[in-house]
Structure formats: C-alpha cells, structure tokens
Automatic annotation (TrEMBL):
It comes from Salinimicrobium sediminis. Keywords: DNA damage, Methyltransferase, Transferase. PANTHER family: 6-O-METHYLGUANINE DNA METHYLTRANSFERASE, ALKYLTRANSFERASE-LIKE PROTEIN 1. It comes from the Bacteria. This is Methylated-DNA-protein-cysteine methyltransferase related protein. Residues 6-87 form the Methylated-DNA-[protein]-cysteine S-methyltransferase DNA binding domain. InterPro entries: ATL_DNA_repair, MethylDNA_cys_MeTrfase_DNA-bd, MethylDNA_cys_MeTrfase_DNAb, WH-like_DNA-bd_sf. Pfam families: DNA_binding_1.
DNA sequence: TCCATGACATCCA
DNA sequence: CTGGATGCCATGG
C-alpha cells in the first residue's frame, strides 16, 4: 500500500528543480535528512532513469561533475540538456556550478 | 540473515 | 591530482 520509498522522496525533489538549476546528491540526501546516504539518491536516479518526469541531468555530484552522464543514453546528452538550459559544461563539469546550484533545503521546505 | 552493489561524500597518503 | 579506504543507507540475491 503506497509505501513511500526513499526514491519517491528523491523524485519529488528532483522534479521540483527549476530549469537552469542543478543540485547535488548530497544536498538532496541532506534535505531528506539522510546526509551520507547520497548513494541512495544516485541509486534512486538509476531507477528514475526510466521516469520521464525525472530531470536526472540536473542532478550532479558535489563537485558539479557530471558523474551520471555515463548512465544517459548517448555520451553528451546530459551536458547537452544542461547547456540547453543555459548551463555551461567544461570537461564534464559544470562551470559556475555554485551559481547554478539549487539547494532544496534552502529553496524548499519540509512537507 | 549475510553478502554484494550503488549516478556519493569525506578523509588520508 | 590520483588512488585507496571508510561511512552511510537501501535494495536484491
């Protein structure tokens, strides 16, 4: 019965990421109150890869590095999508990552 | 129940 | 900078 999994939490947050913005796995994990379980966030994204409503390309690691680009179909799809939103990519990492960074715990709030 | 894996984060050499 | 090791939590076999 509608048991809310950790993934669902991640999906909700990721889906709320505005365009031209990005966030980190740790930030989401932290927002969920599970700082350290950032792996779960990434894993959730793996499952989210099949979700069309999950802009996983807006989720990167804390370095702003496109660690998950290898999981996208194609080689440059992730960075391409980000560039489409106005985010510059250099060497698989986001330029001015801090500038595009979107902190859910700062912009969002508990349900 | 135990073991292995995972799109991370952080520390140390 | 690179590589190895540890922690953290959840899922699957």
């Amino acid at each position: 019965m509608a048991e809310i999994s950790f993934f669902d939490r991640v999906y909700e947050v990721v889906k709320q990421i505005p365009e031209g913005r990005v966030t980190s796995y740790g930030a989401i994990a932290n927002f969920l109150g599970a700082s350290g379980s950032a792996r779960m966030v990434g894993w959730a994204m793996n499952n989210a890869s099949k979700m069309e409503d999950i802009p996983a390309h807006r989720v990167v690691n804390r370095n702003g590095l496109l660690t998950g680009k290898h999981h996208f179909p194609g080689t440059r799809l992730m960075e391409q999508l980000l560039e489409e939103e106005g985010i510059a990519i250099k060497e698989d990492k986001i330029i001015n990552f801090q500038q595009h960074f979107w902190d859910p715990s700062a912009e969002l709030h508990e349900e």
